[in-house]
Amino acid sequence: VAGENFDQSPLRRTFKSKVLAHYPQNIEWNPFDQDAVNMLCMPKGLSFRTQVDNRDPQLHSFIITREDGSRTYGFVLTFYEEVTSKQICTAMQTLYQMHNAEQYGSVCASSSCSMDSLASSIDEGDATSLAKLQRYNSYDISRDTLYVSKCICLITPLPFMQACKKFLIQLYRAVTSQQPPPLPLESYIHNILYEVPLPPPGRSLKFYGVYEPIICQRPGPNELPLSDYPLREVFELLGLENLVQVFTCVLLEMQILLYSQ
């Protein structure tokens, strides 16, 4: 993997990601765009963590709009799994040794004082904070467990966000559970890809995930388009005043750009 942001410590850098597998291999009416899906699943690239970092799973969605105006919707669950490759762990250790040597060299070059006088100039509180910072931003192969980000993604012709979210969470639970689910994981993936149809317009559909049933509903021809995103989250993310301002801009047909990390 090729690291970027070399001024950052190795655990804060981003690395190049790639699609490990996708099923089915191709669909005639919806060809798989590997580069686009890879970039949209991991917009910041591959990232590493240790046991001291937050590794809670994250969910996000994306839209691919083609030249003919057709849309494909992607729903992604990003999680962290333990790195079992000794080679990758050793490479991370080497990156830290190089980074620390470079940082030490730049400190010495910019200061004529000795390390003893530098240490004596830092009060006890600062030294403790510095030690904590170094602990949370370091990697020791003999002491730390290395984790790497990984995604599972569902691509659908309609934005069934809640149904896809529930299925991905159940699939993730099955992958990380100590006890395997009743059927092999491939059975659940085959079921949602080949045996669960789109609900007819104006109807709802109930299908089985890994552990619990999942329901999705498709609006009829005379109903408002499908909007499966919870309005509560919009209020939480934007706040009331910002949401009113955005709504006003929509009514005035102004161009709107939302920028987010």
Automatic annotation (TrEMBL):
GO terms assigned for molecular function: guanyl-nucleotide exchange factor activity; small GTPase binding
Pfam families: DENN, uDENN
UniProt domain UDENN: residue ranges: 1-261
Keywords for this protein: Guanine-nucleotide releasing factor
InterPro entries: cDENN_dom, DEN5A/B, DENN_C, Tripartite_DENN, uDENN_dom
Coiled-coil residue spans: none
SMART domains, sorted: DENN, uDENN
Record PANTHER family: DENN DOMAIN-CONTAINING PROTEIN 5B, PINSTRIPE, ISOFORM A
Stated name of the protein: DEN5B protein
Organism expressing this protein natively: Cisticola juncidis
Gene name of the encoded protein: Dennd5b_0
